[in-house]
Every structure is written in C-alpha cells, then in structure tokens.
Amino acid sequence: MSKLGKKLFFIFLVLVLSALILVGFFINYSIGERFYDFVNLQRQESIEELVVMLKERIKDESVTAASEILESFGRTNRILVWLEDADGNLLYNPEHSAQMNNMMRKSGTRMGNMPMMNIQRPESLPGQTKKEEIIIDDKTAAVLYWKEVNAGSQIDSELYNYFKRNVFHAIIFSGLIVIILIIIISFVVSKILTNPLIKLKNAALEVAEGNYEQEISNKGDDELSELVQAFNKMTNKLARLEKIRKESASDFAHELRTPVTTIKGYLEAIEDKMISLDKNNLKEMKEETERIVSLIEKLNEFAEAQNKIFNLQKEKVNLTDIIRNVLKRREKYFKEKNLEIELDIENELIIEADRDSLFQIFNNLIENAVKYNQENGLIKIKSKLKKDKVVISIADTGIGISDEDLPYIFERFYRADKSRSTKNGGSGIGLAVTKELIDAHQAEIFVESDDSGSIFTVVFPI
C-alpha cells in the first residue's frame, strides 16, 4: 500500500472508530431509558390482562379469592403487585422478604440496605407506583398496584445488563467488519488515486532532470484528471520553449556571426591588399557593424524592460499623445510601403504609467505592423473605454501568424517565420520587450491572427 493509501486507511479508521465510540456513548446514555420504556409497556400489557382475569375471579367468587392469581402472576412475570379492596384494606402483598428479595433480584430491583421484612405498601420500594382500578357493575371492587421500572431502580437488572451486553457485542462485531471493509476500500481507493499521482511524481522528476517529453495518460473528468491534463499541457509548453531556447541560441549566434564574419573578411582582404579601403567597402563594414549594434541594443532593451518591473516612473500620461508621437516618427516607413493609417482614438486617454515604457510598447507594436504588412496595406488603431480600463487595438493587413506560432510570439528570440523575419530585420526580441513592459504595468495583451492580418489588443487599467 502506498503512503497515500496508508493515510487514507488511517483517516477512515479514525473516523469509523470515532463514530463507534460516539454510538457507544449514545447507547450507554440513551438505551436504558428506551429499554425501560419497552419493559414498562410490556408490563402495562401484562397488567391489563391480569385486570381482566381478576374481574372474572372477583365477580365469580370474591376479592379475597384473587390471591392465587396474583401469586402466580408475580412469579411468572416477575412483577411485584399489591391488591386493595374498595375501602383501602390491603388484600395482597408479596409474601415475605426472602421471596420478595429473590423476585426483586430476578427483576433487577435493588433493595439497597433495606432490612429483611414484609413490605406492606408499594411506596416502600423505589420506582413509580402505578394502579389499575377493577370495576365491576360500575363500582370499584378493588385497586391493583404495581411498580414501574426505571433507570434509578433497575440499573443492575439482569435483563437490562444482558440486553446492553448483547448490543455492545453487536457494535464491536460491526466495527470489526467495518475495519476489514476499510482495509479493502482503502487499498482499492488508494490504487485508483495514487496510480496517476505516482506517474505524475515520476514524470515531474524527469522534468526536473530536463527531460520535458513527458505525457501521462489518464481517463476521467475529476480534479485529478484536470491536474494530469494541466501537467501534460505544461510539459508540452516546456518542451516547446526548450526547443525555442536552443534554436534561439543558435539563431542569435548566427545573427552575430554573419556581420562579424563579413567584417573580418573585408579586413583580411584589405590587409592582403586584395581590395582597397574605398568608400563602398567602408559602407559595407559600417552596415554590418550597425547590425551588431542593433542586436545588442535590442538585448539591452529586453534587460531594461525586465528591470522596469521594479523601476517604473509612473505619472499621468495621455495615451493618445504617445500613439500620435510614434506615428509621426514612423511616417517615413509608412510612405516606403504606401501604408494607410486609420486612427480612431479618443483625444484623451489618461492612465497612470511610465511614459518611456508606453512609447516603447506602441513603437514596437506599430513597427511590427509595418514590417509584416503588405505593400499598400492598412493599419487600424482604435481605442475603447470599458469601465475602469482602456483598450487599444492595432490591426494590420499583413502576413498573419500561424496558430502553431501564436502561443510563443512573446518568447525571447522567437520568430514565427525565420526567413521573412530575417529579411525584415526581426530579431525576435521586440515582442518579448513589449510583453515585459505590459506585465510591469499590470496590463494585458491579446493577439488574434489569420491570413488577412493580425490584431494586437492592449488593455490598461485606469
């Protein structure tokens, strides 16, 4: 049995034992009263039958002739009875103390320290006295007295002790059966619960070692199945991110190697006097150097974006001014591709934010909308106010992003289309920087994309 199975068994066992103990206490405190109610009900029925017999005997003979019936009734039913006539004279009482003590011992009535003596009245004994009038010809011919049993007077009753002992034996026997069932149920339940958990643990250990290709099969629709599904989703994403990381490192090395190799080739050729250091060659080397500087600046932007989480200089900023400023600086690139800009935003969209970070966010998003747009394309920028939020959407009519690439576009160095990204000067860092800055502002960004273009939606809290 697994550790979890043992814990389940222990929990079930504690619960059942606690329930049995509570039942035992409940029975111990309540069974006596219920038992005596039952016994007194039986006595009442027996007394009613005795009254019928006494009526017949007294009617046929006399009141004094009832002693034989009462004597037999007392011995048979273990009920102490007394009989008075209509004038209150005692006609019958239990014979002498030895016989009474014997009957009382059998019935369970305690004499305590009472002396061995004839008991003349029922009130001399503990317990409630009950009476039944024997009516003949509408007249009271005699009165029959008898004693009810109760917890105070019958606690040592042999019958009661026998009954209580058997009840407790039944409880103990039931408890043993339940414990056996608990062992079986705990074993089965622990197997059902722990098998996927053990698989999950082993898979998690593999992930901790760097082996992200883990997937656990599990059927069901409960929380455990949801946990397994979440784990599978996590490992798939980790595997994908690990692949991106490796490819990104390779791409980054390639991005650096290409301009460095080109510059090195020029310098060696000039040194060997294979080419002259003219204006064109200097221009080529300068362009390659600018590629290196641009890449380093992008990396620096990413590092600064991460630091912004702790160093935001928040102030009241009008988003509309920020967006117009970015568009003004990008006019040259709009004209190069003959792009149409459709601007539909409020004149004032005031939020608490870091001004430089906002400029960088919208500069990166609009730069992407330009880079990956078609010639003679369109860029739509819209704003919307929703309760305590400002929503800005930037849509383009570009090449779009595939469903496969969409979840990873904000990862560092990730490029959805490497050939076109390289051609357009993409480094795979711009959107990663954007996401870091948006997270720093506790804002959100969403992306929708298809063959007709992409829409980036940013939601800022006011």
Explain this structure.
The chain has 462 residues and is α+β, with helices and mostly antiparallel strands. The chain has 3 domains: 3-162, Beta-Lactamase (2-Layer Sandwich); 212-307, Signal transduction histidine kinase, dimerisation/phosphotransfer (DHp) domain (Helix Hairpins, Orthogonal Bundle); 310-462, Histidine kinase-like ATPase, C-terminal domain (Heat Shock Protein 90). It is 57% helix and 16% strand. The protein has helices spanning 3-60, 67-77, 97-107, 151-154, 158-208, 223-271, 279-307, 319-329, 331-336, 355-371, 418-423, 430-440, and strands spanning 81-85, 90-92, 129-136, 139-147, 314-318, 340-344, 350-354, 378-386, 389-396, 444-450, 453-461. A 5-stranded mixed beta sheet has the order 6-8-9-11-10, with helices on one face. Strands 2-1-4-3 form a 4-stranded antiparallel beta sheet, with helices on one face. α7 (279-307) runs parallel beside α12. The protein starts with a helix and ends with a strand.
Tell me what the CATH architecture of the largest domain is.
2-Layer Sandwich
What is the CATH topology descriptor of the largest domain? Beta-Lactamase
Compressed to H and E, one letter per element, the order equals: HHEEHEEHHHHEHHEEHEEHHEE
Distance between the termini: 56 Å
- Helix/strand-derived class? alpha+beta
